[in-house]
Amino acid sequence: MNKNELINKVADKTGIAKKDTEAIVNEALSQVIEALKQNEKVQLVGFGTFEVRERASRSGRNPQTGETITIPATRVPGFRAGNKFKDAVKK
């Protein structure tokens, strides 16, 4: 399912116009991103938790030259599924 399919399904289920549903979905995703930028966790009980994780620097290889390089530390988004979400997928 892509974003447009999600918007269409939510609009059909709720009876809200697709244009309004698109605005709601886009704003919800924007708020998750903004919270993560502020290093806040976004916890949706039963669904899961979005958070920022620190990835340590590590060594790697340049595939063209085979030279060892250092990959710098970085921040990456992470998601941990909630129990209700895990149980729904198992069934």
Taking pLDDT < 50 over at least 5 consecutive residues as the criterion, the unreliable ranges are: none
| Gross geometry | elongated
Query: How would you name the CATH homologous superfamily?
Result: IHF-like DNA-binding proteins
Order of the strands making up the biggest sheet: 1-2-5
What is the string of SSEs from the N terminus onward?
HHEEEEEH
Helical content class:
40-55%
Number of strands: 5
Structure class: alpha+beta
Instruction: Please report the first level of CATH classification, the CATH class.
Output: Few Secondary Structures
Largest sheet descriptor: 3 strands, antiparallel
Radius of gyration: 19 Å
CATH topology: HU Protein, Chain A
| Proportion in β-strands | 25-35%
Q: Output the number of helix runs.
A: 3
Distance between the termini: 19 Å
How many domains, as an integer? 1
pLDDT averaged over residues = 96
Pfam families: Bac_DNA_binding
Family: Belongs to the bacterial histone-like protein family.
Keywords: DNA condensation, DNA-binding
GO cellular component, one term: HU-DNA complex
Task: Tell me briefly what this model is.
The protein has 91 residues and is α+β, with helices and mostly antiparallel strands. Helices cover 44% and strands 30% of the residues.
Describe this structure in words.
This protein is of the alpha+beta class and 91 residues long. The protein has a single domain (3-90), classed as IHF-like DNA-binding proteins (HU Protein, Chain A). Helix content is 44%, strand content 30%. It is built from three helices and five strands; from the N terminus they run ααβββββα. The strands form two sheets. It has a three-stranded antiparallel sheet with strand order 1-2-5. Strands 3-4 form a two-stranded antiparallel sheet. β3 (58-61) and β4 form a beta hairpin. It is elongated.
